[in-house]
Amino acid sequence: MVFRRVIIRLLCVSGVAVTAILAFASAHDHMWANLALCLIGLAVSASVLLVGEKDGLKGGNAVEPLTRSETPLQTLPALLDQVPVPLLKSVEGEGFYALNLAARRLFRVDAFISDPPPAMVAAVMRAERGARASIRLFDSVYALGVSELSFEERKERFISLTDIQAEMRIAEATALGDTLRVISHEIMNSLTPVASLAETAQHYLEGDAPDGVQYAREALAVLERRARGLKRFVEGYRSLARLPQPELRRVDIKSFVTDVVRVFQQSAVAEGVTLALEMEAGALWLEMDEALMAQALINVLTNAAEATRDNTGPRHVNLTVQRLDKDMGMEIADNGAGIEFTMRDRIFHGFITTKAEGAGIGLSLARQIALAHGGDLRLLDQTESWSSVFLFRLPGGKDMPES
User: Fold this and answer.
1) pLDDT at res. 189
2) Which residues contact 363 (CB under 8 A, 6 or more apart)?
3) 393 Cβ contact partners less than 8 Å away, ≥ 6 residues apart
4) For the chain, how long is the longest CA-to-CA vector?
5) CB within 8 A of 20, min separation 6: which ones?
6) What digits encode the pLDDT tens for the residues 368-395?
7) Which residues sit opposite 390 in a β-bridge?
8) Closest C-alpha to 148, from 34, 50, 45
């Protein structure tokens, strides 16, 4: 019994760590957020056990009375009230409860939230399947963190709501500035020679030189190529700016990947490339926009194939599809030239490319599509076998139900 009480006290004291973790963790650092939520759940549950033991004294049970040093039960609510992030508890069959002062102020309740926002309820339900969500509540945007614990066949979810409105505005302003710099740079690089070539062609056409017309034709041919390059750049920017919202439906992963591989292998860029497919056994499905994700996967496969063009030996691309905890992973690796260290942080920026003929659209668009699905596309560290490794991580891979 004494050992049990020591464990309970330790769990309550774990609430002290919550304040530090949630105060300093980034809104997007889900590992720290989930750890903090687990500590909250354990501490709150331990508090309930302590109450039960304290009440047991009234029945004459042989339990040591609480001493002055045993104060976690009293201090835990005060500690949680110091956390600036709203903390909630969702009890299966009951509803949502505010756990700290920030949550009570946000929802204007004493404890029980009688009318929780539908967007929050839906986001919490999605988070059970591994989604990492941001939701709009009360004219602001919050990053949602959820941790789930089970007690005697009853599920309790502990939820954090981190206000990321200011971070999003800063990120949007930074992204806009970066985009405008890239656009102005690319347009000026194209328009400057276009203007010069037009003047040159006009000079030759107005002159009396016998070969003036030929020189003018050559200048106009170069001008046409530069104009086409500028058009391609503008079309690429438009494809990024007009990315549609994904229309989610249940998709059989095996059929989806098989179809994408078949389309890729028919393309000119795949000529001479050996594509190996490794797929986890069993039927799997995922909620996604099949057309958008097919475009994203083909973009990364194309990028991998193009990276091997200068190989003197065999050209290999490997596609691995497997579950990663609650997520679905699609890993694309190639044995090409690799990506320079100085380019790794910028490889997903729009219009940044390592290829002479590249537009810098494919990887950026692929990542935007993954993010629109609640997932991500990351560049992993190279291995002994592969020089470049990209990983799509999408939430919610499930086994197909038996028919």
Assistant:
1) 61
2) 299, 300, 303, 347, 348, 377, 390
3) 324, 327, 328, 329, 370, 375, 376, 377, 378
4) 118
5) none
6) 889 888 889 998 887 878 888 999 999 8
7) 332, 379
8) 34
99, 79 Cβ separation under 8 angstroms: no
**pLDDT score at 5:** 55
Contact 312, 360 (CB under 8 A): no
Do the Cβ atoms of 79 and 17 come closer than 8 Å? no
H or E element in which residue 277 lies: strand 273-279
Whether 194 and 74 have beta carbons less than 8 Å apart is answered as no
Contacts 24+ apart (CB under 8 A), 19-25: 19/79, 19/80, 19/82, 19/83, 22/83, 22/84, 22/85, 22/87, 22/160, 23/83, 23/84
| Beta bridge partner(s), residue 394 | 328
In order of 330, 384, 394, the CA distances from 280 in angstroms are 11, 23, 15
Residues of the chain with confidence (pLDDT) below 70 = 1-75, 127-132, 151-152, 172, 175-176, 178-183, 185-190, 192-193, 229, 232-242, 350-360, 397-403
H-helix or E-strand containing 147? strand 140-151
Provide the pairing of β-strand 249-252 with 284-288: antiparallel
Q: Which helix (H) or strand (E) holds 253?
A: helix 253-265
SS3 content of the chain, % helix, strand, coil (to 5): 50, 20, 30
User: From CA 21, how far away is CA 233, in angstroms rounded?
Assistant: 44
Residue 356: the pLDDT is 47
Which pLDDT value is given to residue 317? 93
Which value, in Å, is the radius of gyration of the alpha carbons in the chain? 29
pLDDT in tens, 81-132: 888 888 988 887 788 999 899 889 989 999 898 888 888 888 887 765 555 6
Q: Is the pTM of this model over 0.85?
A: no
Output DSSP code: residue 103: H
DSSP 193: H
